[in-house]
Specification:
The protein is mainly β. It has a single domain, classed as Jelly Rolls (Sandwich), CATH 2.60.120.10. The chain is 4% helix and 48% strand. The chain has one helix and 26 strands. The chain is globular, with a radius of gyration of 19 Å. The relative contact order is 0.22. Bound molecules: manganese (II) ion. The site of manganese (II) ion has 7 residues, from β6.
Length: 322
């Protein structure tokens, strides 16, 4: 997934200033963002008022979209640095290609993790023959300083741990929960879990008090810690919880994201996570000049995505709240 904003702004994120040390229930509305010509996504992070939850720094939720007789997702080759992309499908399939030569079809319940490190390029598309519905989430994880120059890597995991309780089924797709650990590589303490609730289902999800968390409903109406959460909104939960009550009167589905608050200040622009505007500018130049840093994505029927113009405004000073 790519940020296709024609004029993205530099955004500074991270640090402890915005982290709620105590449990809170802060409802954040996503905003609709066009993704190419055929897809629209709900961007839940970064959003007005909150930019990160742990190391999770980007959350797009898309669908369920009827893509019968439509191309579906078509995201041309584009670069990333300094982050991991976490692809999680709830319906349909997405074909991933990258500059390492990976070619992988993702389906619901399977995990695609791409560690960009120093630099990688990839494309994402609905296969020519695809299911009628496309539904999923594209998530980014900021890499800590010690890992962000790492060599790029692609991982696919089809066998993920599942916890079942009280009519709920929780797949741990990143990190660990209640001893269930995903095989997806992480570089900071975090968790990503997919919770499916049957009608009348409910459970208390075990949490780490040192983590901050947020929940987003993807289908149905799920009650999270007393708040009825409709699809397309994110409930920020803060830190200091050892469990989280979730329930649903009718079938529902949510994603729970959490992690140790990310101490480092990061700079995000377009598809890059770095520590300064200069680093971002260098990555943009490398992509524009087709530098070997990002390699080449083979097999995508279309041109690579050009980088948007670099903003002329200087980076906002630290700590300023948008
Ligand atoms: Mn991407």
């Amino acid at each position: 997934m790519s940020d296709l904003d024609a004029a993205p702004r530099l955004a500074e994120c991270g640090g402890r200033a915005g982290v709620a040390a105590e449990p809170v229930r802060e409802l954040l509305q996503g905003r609709s963002v066009p993704l190419g010509e055929s897809t629209e996504v709900r961007r839940l992070l970064p959003t007005l008022g909150r930019r990160m939850v742990g190391a999770w720094c980007f959350v797009d939720h898309y669908g369920p979209d009827d893509i019968v007789d439509r191309p579906g997702m078509q995201v041309p080759p584009h670069p990333h640095i300094g982050l991991q992309t976490v692809s999680w499908l709830l319906g349909g399939e997405v074909l991933h290609r990258d500059s390492l030569g990976s070619l992988q079809t993702l389906t619901p319940g399977t995990l695609g993790v791409m560690t960009a490190g120093h630099g990688i390029a990839h494309s994402e598309e609905s296969p020519a023959a695809h299911s009628p519905l496309l539904h999923g989430a594209q998530l980014w994880v900021a890499l800590p300083d010690g890992a962000r120059a790492t060599a790029p890597a692609w991982e696919f995991h089809g066998d993920l741990p599942v916890l079942e309780d009280g009519g709920t089924r929780t797949t741990v797709f990143m990190g660990e929960m209640a001893g269930a650990r995903s095989a997806g590589t992480t570089f900071s303490p975090l968790v990503g879990a997919d919770v499916t609730l049957a009608a009348g289902g409910g459970t208390r999800l075990p949490l780490e008090p040192d983590f901050e968390y947020a929940a987003l409903t993807t289908l149905g109406a799920v009650n999270v810690d007393g708040v009825d959460l409709a699809p397309g909104s994110l409930l920020y939960l803060g830190c200091g919880r050892s469990e989280l009550q979730v329930s649903a009167a009718s079938p529902g589905h949510l994603l729970l994201l959490g992690g140790e608050p990310f101490d480092e200040q990061i700079v995000m622009w377009w598809n890059f996570v770095a520590r300064s505007g200069e680093e971002i500018g260098a990555a943009r130049a490398d992509w524009t000049n087709a530098d070997a840093r990002f390699g080449e994505v083979h097999g995508y029927a279309g041109d690579r995505l050009p980088a948007p113009p670099f903003p002329s405004t200087r980076l906002k000073p630290r700590g300023r709240v948008r």
